[in-house]
Design brief:
Blueprint (H helix, E strand, L loop, with lengths): L2 H23 L25 E7 L5 E8 L8 E6 L8 H21 L4 E6 L4 H5 L17 H6 L20 E4 L2 E4 L8 H13 L3 E7 L3 E4 L8 H14 L3 E2 L11 H7 L4 E6 L7 H15 L2
Parallel strand pairs: 3-4, 3-7, 7-10, 8-9
Antiparallel strand pairs: 1-2, 2-4, 5-6, 8-10
Helix pairs in contact: 2-8, 6-8
Length: 302
């Protein structure tokens, strides 16, 4: 055989062998091909960073936002503390301002202030439509941002359906409630309002260990109950917060009869809850209330 034919034959053999191997091996696995549409999940939020959850919307379509904080990702959370402000909108605007001040405090100090086993959630404004009547902006604000007559502030106590949200919860609810000497609407049924339903749904899923709600104005810390007595832990929280903040402590709110109260609804569901009534409608009493909050942190620290 001529050398030229031998070379050609070898080339043919090599081509056949390589081709057969490639056919046997098959095409690359799909995982070897980059997927241009694949979305890389975002990294976990840093400890101490603000986590936001929109838990619902108001009658007017404004967001009701919850802000969550924790100090450690290494220790399991066994305690969830919930703070709620702004249920009476612009009438008690200082309770929303105080909640935003607490948010600012937690953003600056959460790693040092919050116990490692505790998660803190703040809902600064439960009635954003009412607040918007006297604070024409969204988010944190100061006293300088507040405007409107006394009449406007009183009307802003209610939501856009003219319902007093603190008469719309399922604890001795009535369609008509009382605010001081005034008859107010409690809604058409318990949780008839989107704001109260948003809180109900959030609480039922979040399952807070204890709740602090801010109101104004009396100047005191009140235990919650729904005709089932004051829970032992509620009594303890009332005492701890009041002593640290320098407020008087009250076993019950008995200035006038109330129905459909939020804090008392917590009690009905066996959730320890206290109502902190600021002394005026103008001051947040930040120093006093941070002392109360820190005292609760100390109580639940492990």
């Amino acid at each position: 055989m001529k050398p030229k034919n031998i070379v050609i034959g070898l080339i043919i053999i090599i081509v056949l062998v390589v081709g057969g191997y490639l056919m046997f091996r098959g095409s690359p696995e799909p995982t070897d091909i980059p997927n241009e549409n694949e979305v890389t999940p975002p990294p976990p939020a840093e400890v101490g960073a603000k986590q936001e959850t929109v838990i619902g919307k108001s009658v007017g379509g404004r967001d009701i936002t919850a802000y969550h904080y924790r100090a450690s990702a290494d220790v399991p959370v066994d305690t969830r503390l919930l703070f709620v402000g702004g249920i009476h909108g612009g009438y008690s605007w200082n309770t929303a301002a105080l909640a935003y001040e607490l948010i600012d405090y937690l953003e600056r100090n959460s790693i040092n202030a919050i116990p490692r086993n505790v998660e803190v959630t703040v809902i600064p404004v439960l009635n954003p439509d009412g607040l918007n009547k006297v604070v024409a902006r969204t988010g944190a604000f100061t006293k300088a941002d507040v405007s409107g007559s006394d009449e406007a502030k009183i009307s802003s106590r209610f939501n856009a359906n003219s319902v007093d949200l603190n008469r719309n919860f399922d604890c001795e609810w009535k369609t008509q409630g009382t605010w001081q000497s005034t008859t107010v609407s409690g809604g058409s049924a318990p949780f008839s309002e989107p704001e109260t339903m948003a809180l109900k749904n959030f609480v039922e899923s979040y399952k807070p260990t204890a709740v602090v709600s801010w109101y104004s104005s009396v100047g005191g810390v009140f235990s919650s109950n729904c005709k089932n007595g004051v829970l032992p832990e509620t009594a303890a929280l009332t005492s701890v917060y009041a002593k640290a903040a320098g407020y008087p402590a009250y076993k019950t709110f008995d200035f006038y009869a109330i129905t459909g109260d939020m804090s008392n609804w917590f009690a009905k569901n066996n959730i320890p809850a206290i109502s902190v009534l600021l002394t005026t409608h103008e001051d947040t009493e930040l120093t006093k209330n941070l002392a109360g909050v820190d005292a609760l942190f100390a109580r639940y620290a492990k």
